[in-house]
Amino acid sequence: MSDRNDEPGSPKLAEFRDRVYKEFGPNLEKATPANVRDFLDSFQENALSPVQHKRFELNESKTTYEEILKDFFVRVLDRPTDDALITLWLMAFELAFYGLEQHLSDRLQALFSELNEDS
Questions:
Q1: CB contact at 8 A, 22 and 90
Q2: Cβ pair 32, 98 in contact under 8 A
Q3: CB 23 within 8 A of CB 97
């Protein structure tokens, strides 16, 4: 397995990778559901240019969640490789930590319900 610092990539991808490692550590050991959410919010806010901070007009022709997902993945295929990779990585990261957050929430809820039953 090659060292990730030797992997080729554009400056944009390298900058993104450095930002992720700085935030969460080289093995993502500092990542938690809370700070992942903060990172994603911050990244999205900083990725938007001042021009894009204008009012958005939603003109969504898709009417189901399935159609929206399909449209998202089709649009990702049309993006430059580095943009597509970053977009898909962010989506996967968000979904993984959302799932973890839900799992932990369910476990804590079960634990506290057991404590309440014992009282």
A1: no
A2: no
A3: no
